[in-house]
Design goal:
By secondary structure, the protein is of the alpha/beta class. It is built from eleven helices and 14 strands. Helix content is 37%, strand content 19%. The radius of gyration is 20 Å and the shape is globular.
């Protein structure tokens, strides 16, 4: 099953200031702020919704096709993804813009000053999915994740026009979207991903009820944080899957992306929705135990031992055949 993953590609530049931002501001001079902070360290991490999901799928051996836009500075990041099983042949490289990045400084009180540069991400709207499909011999599913809003709309319309099943996954972009755009992006989706808060936003902004939205998509997948995930289809009993036991709770960034990577990999394998959700929850657990969205290691024996403990022998035997 050939799955294309569209979405943002970015790097995070994280710095730590040992003092307090508040001590640097002069109350009667806030209208002319000009500050520079000497930081202790710089931590550069790979990120972006599309890249995070594709990385997780690559770790599980499903060879996803990453579709997004990056800058000429993408070479090292590309090599990393290539080494971890991601097809990066459909990433558009901008001739003028850098890869999107988030630059953030955190002080001793955990206050943050940050900036997000969209950069080359704005060129994702220029990517045609037909070109991607022709290159890889067709697409069975396109996951449309948080990206340049115009790109999300274009990819969705093209999937409909070309009868390619797609998954709608608004993620961070839902905050800036209006109800009309959300309606366009979700109607007819084979899968609709969201967390509980986003689920409420979708219903509030569209004016559609839970049952009305469920009738417009094939499968609704709602992540529930520490409680796992709920999967709903019209006329069927909901499926609820819990999370495996955590060895540590280190940092939650990228957990949702990892769940999607596991779930989409399960779809690629052809296992049941319940099994796919279990794989997603197991991969998400590895991420929450690690700092960074792509820093975890999928050690297959350890993965399967923990998967068996959480979901039983039958589930483990079925999944182990795909992990090798």
């Amino acid at each position: 099953m050939r799955i294309a993953v569209t979405g943002s590609i970015a790097t995070d530049h994280l710095m730590t200031f040992p003092g307090r931002f508040a001590d640097q501001f002069v109350a009667d001079q806030l209208h002319t702020v000009s500050l520079s902070f000497l930081v202790d360290n710089l931590d550069v991490r790979r990120g972006g919704v599309g890249a995070n999901i594709a990385f997780g799928m690559g770790q599980l051996g499903t060879r996803p096709i990453l579709v997004g836009a990056a800058g000429a500075d993408f070479d090292e990041y590309r090599a990393w993804l290539d080494r971890h099983g991601v097809d990066t042949g459909s990433v558009r490289i901008s001739e003028t813009l850098h890869t999107a990045r988030f630059v953030c400084t955190t002080d001793a009180d955990h206050n943050q000053i940050g900036s997000f540069y969209t950069g080359a991400m704005s060129e994702a709207r220029l990517i045609e999915l037909k070109t991607v499909a022709d290159r890889v011999g067709g697409l069975d599913l396109v996951s449309i994740g948080a990206d340049d809003p115009e790109a999300m709309l274009r990819h969705t319309e093209e999937c409909r026009t070309r009868s390619i099943p797609f998954a709608a996954d608004f993620s961070q972009q839902i905050a800036r979207m209006g109800g009309d755009d959300i309606k366009v992006l979700l109607e007819g989706a084979a899968y609709l991903f969201s967390n509980e808060y986003e689920k409420g936003l979708i219903e509030s902004k569209t004016g559609w009820s839970d049952s009305e939205i469920l009738a417009k998509v094939g499968t609704r997948v709602t992540t529930l944080g520490a409680r796992g995930v709920r999967i709903e289809r019209v006329g069927e009993e909901p499926i609820e899957v819990g999370c495996p036991e955590e060895e540590a709770k280190v940092e939650p960034t990228g957990v949702g992306d990892a769940f999607r990577a596991g779930f989409l990999s399960g779809l690629a394998w052809g296992v049941s929705l319940e099994r796919a959700a279990q794989v997603g929850c197991m991969l998400a657990t590895l991420v929450i135990e690690t700092v960074g969205t792509q820093e975890y290691q999928l050690r297959r024996a350890n993965f399967m031992d923990r998967f068996r403990k959480a979901y039983g022998d039958e589930a483990a035997v079925e999944v182990q055949g795909y992990l090798g």
